Amino acid sequence: MSSTENGDKQKSLLAKRFRGFLPVIIDVETGGFNANTDALLEIAAVPLRMTEEGILECEPTIDFQVEPFEGANVEQSALDFTGINLECESRSPVPETIALSETFQTIRKLVKANGCNRAVLVGHNAHFDLNFLNAAVARSDVKRNPFHPFSCLDTATMAGLAFGHTVLAQACKIANIEFSNREAHSAAYDAEKTAELFCLIVNKWKQLGGWPLPEVDEVAEEQKTL
Length: 226
What we know:
Layout (H helix, E strand, L loop, with lengths): L2 H8 L2 H5 L3 E10 L9 E11 L5 E3 L3 E4 L10 H7 L13 H18 L4 E6 L2 H15 L6 E8 H9 L4 H7 L12 H21 L8 H10 L1
Parallel strand pairs: 1-5, 5-6
Antiparallel strand pairs: 1-2, 2-3, 2-4
């Protein structure tokens, strides 16, 4: 047996399903739209697991309230939209370095446990979250970032295909996923709902027969008979 064949057997179903990537849903709440100048205020991550039957499920949520970095811009309109009160006594923010380091540590362990090569960010309008994540990593000089630096999976696009709607709240409603507008715009809540939506779409695709793909040898045999 070749080392490649042996390595492939050691991969989990999850690794095989996503080309060696561990999907992790990320949601951020911010002080604006500019990842380089505006504060990261909350970050949440929902890693995924896969059952022996190939069904995606959610791991426990990792979430942090984050201190604005020194010199960060925070737009009042952003606070009004998210409902975040930076002066609230119940808010317990940590520096970006701690939030990222602890999140990444958990994700790296799951990457290894699932036989994956690295994590891939899943988000609703994913490049927004990825840009803020990458900017925070660069500011904090955090090492061993498990995420691919530019690849991501976007549930807004997936929901547009599956349900004809790209807004998270409406896509969840169409998909019969409970969604509370009152709880929305917290990183943990939005990440969990995005994770539910992603799992539902991927699992439905499997149920419809779209996965697993036929083996290459099987396809070649079928082509011979045509």
